[in-house]
Design goal:
221 residues; mainly alpha; 62% helix
């Protein structure tokens, strides 16, 4: 009997135990994204539906707000995002003054993306979809900040505006340093576009996984 010169275990396509290679990474990520996790019972599914309905209801008022206090929904979520923004100033401050200022907006977008990656690793696509929505929401919030770079009318932490306290407005400092202040509204529009796109994709993704979860319900014990 002849033996092939290639030895070792054979893996089927999509086998999650196969060695992770760059070529296999997109397929692995897609499989994780389309997996709602382990089969759940009716109570867990009902909780996911409630979360989805809440997020869906918040999408329009949050995505269309022109200020951080633009309605109760925007104000509520801004209060959640602010600690991550402020933490970013501290975390990225080790890379210099420019990154310290940029780090606030950068961190509030990175945190939900890191959470998204963690949930994909755990093959919980629904939770990952909600994290994508949160990342989109933070991009919209950053867009509001960017668009205020010249006027500096937003009330910032401490109850003052950038116009009242020079050097206090992150994006006035960032775009001023880059000599791009005249581009503030354009950059804000692009950032908002991607934020809203993330949110809509997240809703479609989450809805698909909810529908799929209903087919694999675990009976109540």
């Amino acid at each position: 009997m002849t033996m092939s010169s290639r030895s070792g275990p054979a893996y089927s396509v999509g086998d999650d135990q196969a060695p992770l290679t760059l070529r296999a990474l997109p397929r692995r990520v897609l499989r994780a994204a389309l997996s709602a996790g382990e089969p759940v019972d009716g109570f867990v599914l009902a909780g996911r539906i409630a979360v989805f309905l809440l997020v869906a209801a918040l999408t329009i008022p949050v995505a269309t707000a022109n200020g951080w206090s633009g309605g109760l929904a925007r104000f509520f979520i801004h209060a959640i995002n602010t600690p991550f923004h402020e933490a970013g100033h501290v975390l990225f401050g080790i890379f210099g003054s420019f990154m310290r200022v940029l780090g606030g907006s950068l961190n509030q977008v990175l945190v939900p993306l890191v959470c998204l990656t963690a949930f994909l690793w755990r093959r919980n696509g629904f939770a990952a979809a909600m994290m994508l929505w949160w990342a989109g929401d933070n991009l919209v919030e950053v867009a509001i900040y960017v668009g205020d770079a010249r006027e500096q009318e937003l009330v910032l932490l401490g109850g003052v505006t950038g116009a009242e306290q020079p050097g206090y407005h992150d994006w006035n400092n960032i775009l001023g340093h880059l000599q791009m202040l005249q581009w503030d509204r354009t950059l804000a529009s692009v950032t908002r576009f991607w934020g809203v796109s993330f949110m809509l994709v997240a809703l479609a993704w989450g809805l698909y996984l909810l529908a799929d979860s209903r087919k694999h319900l675990k009976p109540l014990s």
